[in-house]
Amino acid sequence: MDKSELRRDPLTDVWTIFTGAHALRPAFGSIRGENGGTDPFIAGRERFAPNALHTAPGGQGWQVRVVPNRTPILRVEGDATPRPDGFYDRMDGVGAHEVIIEDGGTRALEELPLADVEKVIDAWKWRMLDLMRDPRMRSLFVVKNAGRAAGGLVNHSLSQLVAMAIIPPVLRQKLRVARTFYAAKKHSIFEDLVAEEIRAATRLVYENNGFTVFCPYAARAPFELAVIPKRQCPDFHGLSDQERTQLADALRTVLRKLNRALDHPPYNLMLFTAPTRTPRHDEWNTIEHDFRWHIEILPRLQHLGGIELASGCWVNGVWPEVAADYLRQMEVAE
After folding, report:
1. pLDDT at 60 (0 to 100)
2. What is the C-alpha to C-alpha distance for residues 86 and 30, in angstroms, rounded to an integer?
3. What pLDDT score was predicted for residue 207?
4. Each residue of 286-302: pLDDT tens digit?
5. Which residues, other chains included, contact 295 with Cβ-Cβ below 8 Å and sequence gap of 6+?
């Protein structure tokens, strides 16, 4: 494709500029060559993170551990009530920030056996359910920063769970779009997204009975992936046992495909789930039908530039149809 093109993401209403002129060599290399120094999360060094909030057994005594972040961006202590500060508003940084140690050894998430990937997914789910017992927590999300370019600070397979006393703007925008679409069409925008990607097939990378994985139509970065459940459910903690296995299969497969295609690129994995709801009817009164929890995987191959920051549009040099076709061809071992 030799001309520039603008594409709109229907879920966020954000535009991406596709241009062959921006098809540059990756600025960040493989994460396998990075040196992270002493690894405090390996089995046998539990003294560096002693207060386990959740543990799943494994061959080295444990397979998955969840611990409080030693340098949390938010803390459970404080008042979650907004208050004026002159012209502005502020509140205490109320929330929670936890680290999910995905392996007692040095394996990456996608290198684990399927049953061990399921244990990681279980840790996300059970810690969310526990944090939701605090009525101040309005939203929860999981992030995984693989590699220095994606914000990873150590060479260990980790993910992070963050709970907030607010609904952050990225999630709020998705909720608004989903609610507006449902009000007009009487069905979920996610239903149409999944149906269109399966119908078109040009951006489809992988699917099983529970999940569809594709390169989004307005992908923000080369080889971006969306992982969307086929069953309508707004809450990640509503994941069934069968869906847990299917999600583990989907994540492990597509991350292995990314590794083969791009030689272990840095990436951010982001899990979005619906906010907690109050018993009264509020602005999210159709959320059970309009929103669907989902995962985004964003490879970090280039720096963000001034054009992206000034325009609010992403610039991508690889069309999603090209990326998906390449990923489909990547064979991965079981």
Report:
1. 76
2. 48
3. 97
4. 999 999 999 999 999 88
5. 226, 227, 228, 251, 269, 270, 271, 272
Place 2 in a pLDDT band, splitting at 50, 70 and 90: low
| Sign of torsion over alpha carbons 277, 143, 301, 305 | positive
Cα–chain-centroid distance for residue 46?
27
CB environment 137-168: b (16+ within 10 A), e (fewer):
bbbbbbebbbbbbbebebbbbbbbbbbbbbbe
Q: Number of helices and strands (H, E) in the chain?
A: 7, 15
Q: How far apart are CA 206 and CA 6, in angstroms?
A: 25
- Contact between 209 and 199 under an 8 Å Cβ cutoff? The reply is no
Please give the CATH number for the structural domain made up of 7-27+40-70+92-328.
Answer: 3.30.428.10
317 token code pair: 């040099």
DSSP bridge pairs for 85: 88
* CA-to-CA dists, residue 139 to 134, 263, 279, 323, 327, angstroms: 11, 34, 16, 32, 33
Domain regions of the chain by residue span: 7-27+40-70+92-328
**Rounded CA gap, 288 and 282, in Å?**
13
Phi, psi torsion values for 54, nearest 5 degrees: -160, 140
DSSP-based three-state secondary structure for 209: coil
Which amino acid is it at 9?
A: D
Between strands 211-214 and 54-56, the pairing is: unpaired
Check residue 26 and report its DSSP letter.
P
The answer to whether the CB of 55 falls within 8 A of the CB of 65 is yes
| Helix, coil or strand: residue 58 | coil
What was the pLDDT predicted at 233? 97
Q: What is the mean pLDDT of residues 77-82?
A: 88
Query: Long-range contacts made by residues 182-186, C-beta under 8 angstroms, separation at least 24?
Result: 182/286, 182/289, 182/290, 183/286
Structural tokens at position 313: 């549009």
The β-bridge partners of 316 are 18
